[in-house]
Every structure is written in C-alpha cells, then in structure tokens.
Please model this.
Amino acid sequence: MNSINSIDALKLNIEHEKKIIKEILIFSNQLDGLRKLEEKGLEIDIKEKKLLTITINSLLNQLKILNKSIPEIIKKISFFKELPTASEKGGKKVSKTRKEKLISVSYKDSGKNEVFVTINKNDKLKFLKELNITDSSIRRLKKEYNILKEEDEEFKKPSKYARISNKFFSKISTSLFNKGYFSKLNSELRKANLYFLARTYISMALFSSLLAFLLSLGLLIVLLFFNLSLDFPFLISVEEPIFLRLVKNIWIIFAFPTLTFVAFYFYPSLERKSIASKINQELPFVVVHMSAIAGSGVEPTKIFKIIAKGKEYPNVKKEFKKLLNKINIYGYDIVNALKESAEVTSSKKLAELFKGLATTITSGGSLKEFLNKRAETLIFDYKIEREKYTHMAETFMDIYISVVIAAPMIMTILLVMISITDMGLGLSLQVLSLLMLLGISLINIFFLIFLHLKQPAF
Model:
C-alpha cells in the first residue's frame, strides 16, 4: 500500500466511522426513549428494545475494528522512500519479505451504497460477521419504522420550476429573507406541508411575477396596435388614439405581476387554514381510534404508527408521519418530538393534543384516560359544529325557497304583465325569459357550491 492509497484509506475509514457514530446516536436516542417509557410503567415492545441493543453493540464493534486499523495505516503514510530490507551475503541480495497486515474490504450498506474500508487481516471475519448482524438488524428496524408509502415519494422529487427560479433570483430572495421581510413565510410553508425552503419559494414568486409582467406587456402591445381595450374580463374594439389607449391600459403591466406575487405570498396561509380545517374534522375520530389502541397497553409510538399506516385519516396521517420521522430519522425522543410537532402543525387542536400527550408521558399519567377525555371533548365540539351546519342549511333552505321558487313565480307574472302592456324595455319576451332562466341557474349553482364548501367531510 503506497502513501496515496494509505491517505485515501484513512479518509474512507474516518468518513465511515462518522456514519457509524451518527447511526449509534440515533439508535441510542430511540433506546433511551424506550427505557424512559419503561421506567414510567408504560408497556414497550421488548423485541424492539432487544433489536436496538444488538444493533448498537454491533456498530460499536465495527467502530473498534476500524479504529484498530488506523495506527497501521498511519505507519504506511510517509513522504520518504523506505530503505530496502535486504542484507548482502556473499555478493547476493537476500530480501526479507514483510507481510502485509492490512486488507481492503468493500460492501454495500443498507442504502445500497458502495463502501470501502481498510482493516487488519486478522479482523476480517469478525468485521464481516458484525456487518451481517448490523445489516439484518437495520433491515428489521427499517421495516418496523418505515411508514412512508410509495404515493408519498413525489414530495422528494426536486421541482424544475423551483430550480429555474433559484437560478435567476436566489441572490435577491436570500437577501430579502435575511433582512427579515418574509420571516413568517418559513413557518407558514411548513404548516401548509409545502416542501420548499422560504428562499426558494420567494424566488418562485419573483420568477412568476416576472413571467406575469412579460405576459401583461405582450397583452398591452396587442391592445395598442390592434385597436382593442380591456373591459375586464372582455376585449372590446375601440376607435381611440394610441396614447389614450396606453393611458387606459397601462395599469395592466403593474396589476398582473403584483397580483401574482400577492397570490404567492398568501397561498401558504390559505393552504394552512384549509389543512387545519380538514385535520379538525378528522381529529375527533382519530382520538377515539387512538384511545381504543391505548387501551391495549401498547407504547405511544406504536399508536402513531398504526394511525399513520391506515388510509382513513389522510390529513392527520401526514402530521403523524412527520412526528414519527422526528423520532426514527432525527433521533428525537417521543416527548421532544411531540413538543416540536405541536409548534409546526397547522391545527391548534392537534397541537393541544400533542402537548397534552407530552405532558401525560412526562408525568407518567394514563394515556388511555387522557385520550378518552380528549375524545369526549372533541366529539362534543364536533356535534356542536354539526348542529351549526344543520341550522345554517335550514336557513339557506328558506332563502332558497324564497329566491328560487317564489321569485320565478313573481317574475313570470311580471313578464305576462309586460307582454300585455307592451313595456318590454327594449327587450323581447323571449330574451327576458332567457335572462330569468339564466339567473335561476346561476343562483342554483351558487347554492350548490356554497353548501359543498361548508359541508363537513365527516
């Protein structure tokens, strides 16, 4: 092994040791969380605890083997050429062969990445055995923890539009964000489940505003040179001087980009409110489900896993997945994960549930009793909301009967009187009838859309 290879081997070993230490930290935090729950008298998964212990010990053994090889690698790093280990006997050179103590090992880790490490020859079998134990344990842990489904993979795909926007406006957006102009945007994006950094989102807003400006500029040129004017939302033909048309339509190049940027700015807030409403509708039934699971005596993390793996509560499911990722990927213990999730969820009711669960676990209280009481409160609030919706629907039914049934009858009488007295107001009877039918149709559409928007999902 020459000096260059030795330096590379040392770098690879150290990089791999860093990865091993990171994995040990994550699994140790999970094991500590289980031990704390066990100390508070809560039931935990013994198999999971044993599997975490085996994994940590195996990773520690790998770390020891890699550390053991480092002194030998360092010995081989030299900027001077070694003198030949040979002696002259009777004019003949008799060389003393030096055994190579190190060996390179390559394998694929759990993420299917090629890994190269250098270890002592005597430790090869032991190292491969530990690798086998770790690989098997991590596969079982990933199967246990990994709840992300294939349909969620689109969140991880990079956005080409975001990439293009960053190319043009990343410096401007970073400068604006650092000055504190959009300090709340990052929080709104997280609560709205929009997977963009605040700086990237600002770049997208600026790039979209630029495109809107170019389109509005093109529209203004069309209006000026084709004798048209924008009588929103229609284009009408006019015979006016070009300067007058410019004065009347110059607002377009300012209004469209501004409206585009404002729409981008307020969209995360509107999306957050929409998600919060959907979560609040699902939450009473989720807590009832959680209460039933807690009655079987399982540990809290298992409750969230069961809900997250189901398809009954799509909006709460996303929040529970984010909570579990904090525990399983970032190494949070369950109490800190609950407190952190309470800060970034869009629903105040779900945030209160997370904080209540964190307090109950910390104090060693009964999860079943807490969830039962919370379920009663949420179900009571849900019934009140349903009653409000029922009263609102009854009120709109009365309005509907008055406007859509009684009003056409009155209009029909008026049309008959108009036809008799020849007071057509410049419109024929057929046109008036058509306008009346069109008005009734629009009113019906309005009522259907309004009731659909106000109707609870559950």
